[in-house]
Design a protein that fits this description.
Length: about 230
């Protein structure tokens, strides 16, 4: 539903209410959400034909708002993905319980918007995004063994981690078991080490502890990871 179609529906509503001398017409503006609120609050005393026509135009505005919401969610999910916001934090807001669930929601949002726009699904991945994914894949190919070594250290000492950090490590252990290294794996390790580094437990570790070595190795390693693409 385009902005022009929504504007036309609003104009029809305004014209109808002007024709019947609606005394509350001055409260009506051109924002779709506000117009729907207006229609809900100002029904009394209007001819049935006006109310029915308003309802049909109200559906136009509802679809327009739905479309804007879908586009907004895709933008938010993609922006959060680029900024590498922990999926767990996003999932809590969306009622999604797992990292994979958040990734699936992004994938489905891309496909849905592409379909509604009449595009091929991959068309929602812009050139710079595709380039970034390719660079991430090449980085993982070059540093796979180093990434796995850090992951193994985290999994081996997961009993030292707090509950929230351990949630990341459970998924890291699953990737290790499946011999999988993906951009998602890389971010899980980053999140877990960031949580660990800010914990009291980390400060109490011996200088030569495996987790300290893993954290130092990761700091140098992740510095070369492909960054955000605008």
């Amino acid at each position: 539903m385009t902005a022009a179609e929504a504007d036309a529906a609003i104009q029809r509503i305004i014209d109808r209410h002007r024709a019947v001398d609606d005394p509350d017409l001055w409260q009506l503006d051109r924002d779709p959400a506000n117009v729907l609120v207006y229609l809900q609050r100002h029904r009394g005393g209007l001819p049935r034909s006006v109310i029915e026509a308003d309802l049909l135009d109200g559906f136009v505005l509802r679809v327009r708002l739905w479309w804007l919401g879908e586009e907004a969610e895709l933008w938010l999910l993609e922006r959060a993905h680029r900024l590498q916001v922990p999926p767990r934090r996003i999932g809590k807001l969306l009622g999604v319980r797992s990292r994979q669930g958040v990734h699936d929601r992004l994938r489905l949002a891309r496909a849905k918007i592409a379909r509604l726009r009449g595009e091929a699904p991959m068309a929602t991945l812009k050139g710079p995004d595709q380039d970034k994914h390719a660079r991430e894949a090449r980085w993982i190919d070059r540093h796979r063994s180093e990434v796995l070594a850090v992951a193994q250290a985290l999994v081996a000492h997961r009993d030292l981690l707090d509950v929230e950090t351990a949630e990341w490590v459970v998924e890291i252990a699953r990737d290790l078991r499946d011999d999988v290294v993906t951009p998602g794996s890389v971010q899980l390790i980053r999140f877990a080490l960031a949580d660990l580094a800010s914990s009291a437990v980390f400060n109490e570790l011996a200088i030569d502890h495996d987790l300290r070595a893993a954290d130092t190795s990761w700091s140098a390693l992740y510095a070369s990871y492909p960054g955000e693409v605008e």
